[in-house]
Amino acid sequence: MNEVLGVHDLRVAAGRQQLVRGVSFSVMEGERLALLGASGSGKSLTAESLLGTLHARLSRSGVVEFEGVDVTGTLPQDRAGMAAVFQATATALNPLMRVGRQFRLAGHEHRDAAETLVALDFDDPDRVLASYPMQLSGGQLQRVCLAMAVLRRPRILVADEPTSALDTVSQAEVVRALRAATGPGRAALLFITHDVALASGLCDRALVMHEGTIVADEDFTTLLGRTGDDYVSRLVAAARAMSGVDS
Ligand SMILES: Nc1ncnc2c1ncn2[C@@H]1O[C@H](COP(=O)(O)OP(=O)(O)OP(=O)(O)O)[C@@H](O)[C@H]1O
């Protein structure tokens, strides 16, 4: 299996404040990898560094390689092969334009858009394409954004908290769609979330971030089997308690 993304000693700082402190990891072709961690641990700054969208006020060092090529410092639009979806779907779509027109403006034929929507579990794609964004639910909007990302045929999809604003039924729909869009023979996935239980149902391997560093990089079976008193074990125990596995 080939490496699709390599991150080497990534550091992000705001002035003297170190926010990401030497993060290194790799994502293999078709792999689904979770990036877990509490709020403020540095997950989004890491994602922004990969995508080239880091705020200009922040300083960055380290290397990002995409399919073996150093892309550090290139513009987001020059990172073809990477796509992303975010928590805030409202800012990703134009609220005043029908969804179908937005697909067309992005260069996608009606038929391709409809087929992709069906692959992502929509049973009436024509209705979706004829709708304005506000006529769709949060989960449907996220799957529309995912369809737009998938149509770019990415080698890796970065999904930054795509389910955090959703109810549990919509979360499950989006997770199903992410599973359909990624995996062996399709795009790799970097799924960024604080929800350990949700990530364990989708991803095979997990990175755990804490205060700007990676404190665990292991498969989910190993992660969920942790019983110690360290930060990662306590995070897993809290997730188990939340999902009712311990009760
Ligand atoms: N532009 C910025 N300038 C200064 N500090 C920032 C900036 N962006 C983020 N930070 C700080 O960097 C730290 C990491 O932020 P980041 O958004 O990466 O966390 P996160 O793990 O994604 O959290 P969340 O799950 O809440 O999105 C936080 O303390 C945040 O306040």
UniProtKB/TrEMBL annotation:
| Entry EC number(s) | 3.6.1.3
Localization per record: Cell membrane
Could you tell me the keywords of this UniProt record?
Answer: ATP-binding, Cell inner membrane, Cell membrane, Hydrolase, Membrane, Nucleotide-binding, Translocase, Transport
Principal localization reads membrane
Instruction: Supply the SUPFAM superfamilies for this chain.
Output: P-loop containing nucleoside triphosphate hydrolases (SSF52540)
Read off the Pfam families from this record.
Answer: ABC_tran (PF00005)
Q: Where is the ABC transporter domain?
A: 5-236
Top-level EC class as recorded in UniProt = hydrolase
Q: Which GO terms describe its cellular component?
A: plasma membrane
Give the molecular function GO annotations.
ATP binding; ATP hydrolysis activity
Q: How does the entry describe its membrane topology? A: Peripheral membrane protein
UniProt similarity note? Belongs to the ABC transporter superfamily.
* Record's protein name: Adenosinetriphosphatase
The source organism is: Propionibacterium ruminifibrarum
